[in-house]
Amino acid sequence: MTLERIGWKLVMALFLGAMVLQARSQPNTAVPVIFVHGNGDDSAKWIGIIWLFESNGYPADKLFAVRFPHPNSRADDSRDEINRSSTTDEAAELSAFVTRVLIQTHARKVALVGSSRGGLTIRNYLLHGGSANVAYALLSGTPNHGVLATDKNQGGEFNGKGNFLTALNSPSSDGSEVVSGVRMMTLRSDKLDKYAQPTGIAFGTPQMATGVTFEGPALRGASNVMLPNLDHRELAFYPTAFAEMYKFITGTSPQRRSVTPEDNPTLSGLITGFENGAFTNLPVSGAHLSIYPIDTAKGIESSTPAYETTTKEDGRWGSFQAASVQEYDFDLEYQGRHVHFYKAPLPRSTTLLNLRFMPVPRTAESGSAAQISQILIARPQGYFSRERDAVQIDGKLSTDEPSGLPLLDSFVAKVPAISGKLTQVTLRNETIWARPSEDFSKELPIVDFLW
């Protein structure tokens, strides 16, 4: 063999090796991803995560989020409860949604990403015929071994000793707790997941042993990842969790952990409500939505809406072309009450901006009698803990924010009663201006953080 031929073979080998390495470094974005929300939640929870996937080049037409009409579980899975769903209801609805996505995208399999109860729904679907349609399943903060394990209430969906979880966790011959043929990952916290605690602190009974551990979300046979200092919801909705999701599905780490803004995002969604003591994702007809711009430089709200509509039977609103640097008040009027969702600038388009007509918080005080104003500060994608993430109101630490283990996703904050004045609320790197209320039964202002 001549030196020339040896040289050409060496060049070709190096070239082919480089091609293989390049192929391995390219993210696999061919698989449609379906995000599955948890107990009492809706598809809007996934807006930030979907934006992060899009910002890293994942095709928007391959990102989906299911919305269950009755997202709350039953006290006993075997007994009907109005406006609540059984484990079978949820799995059947997920099955129909997966089928629709497969037909729409012409894909052979999907990836499923679930938060909390959504992860149990995924496992139930996989166990009962769905595994052939799924390539990846990722469970975030899912109480796979229960929020408690007790011999009582065998019909409880979240009972580690109950009928449902016992069936899901029945090990195979090799001791695995996962369905074969599907790559599975779990994300859990170190000690901050309220539903993976050895005591009943999340239920107000810290002296009670739950029978579960911090490792409860992990599954034998899955890739189990621990993300320190994240709470129950952050395990699904925080950028740190996103990075694990993206790498698990695409095979590469994301280049960005922040959202790439669009110039003029288009927003739309659904108006939903609260019935018989449970949140629903059913459409509300006859709700009037007005969207008012906020001038953050002057701390004032425009009196002229940039958009307004009254919902029809389908409950839908939009589309509204927003500015990606503009704060807005989403003023929802229904049955003589106003619910205001004050939001930081929304950087990208979404069809999932669902707004719930919220009831009056139980912790609200009579503002007019006490000469105070109040704001409901909400963090749907996480929980509050004063020691971990202090909320500031007009530059001062809020004394109303819950402390200790992150357990609550909202709290009522009291501010001085100054008529018409907007209040500035900051959490981490997110700041929102809002107008407090002296009477939540008429005007409920919600500072609605994304992260």
Automatic annotation (TrEMBL):
<dbReference type="Pfam" id="PF01674">
    <property type="entry name" value="Lipase_2"/>
</dbReference>
<dbReference type="GO" id="GO:0016042">
    <property type="term" value="P:lipid catabolic process"/>
</dbReference>
<feature type="domain" description="AFL C-terminal">
    <location>
        <begin position="267"/>
        <end position="356"/>
    </location>
</feature>
<protein>
    <submittedName>
        <fullName>Lipase class 2</fullName>
    </submittedName>
</protein>
<dbReference type="GO" id="GO:0016787">
    <property type="term" value="F:hydrolase activity"/>
</dbReference>
<dbReference type="InterPro" id="IPR002918">
    <property type="entry name" value="Lipase_EstA/Esterase_EstB"/>
</dbReference>
<dbReference type="InterPro" id="IPR040664">
    <property type="entry name" value="AFL_C"/>
</dbReference>
<dbReference type="Pfam" id="PF18067">
    <property type="entry name" value="Lipase_C"/>
</dbReference>
<dbReference type="InterPro" id="IPR029058">
    <property type="entry name" value="AB_hydrolase_fold"/>
</dbReference>
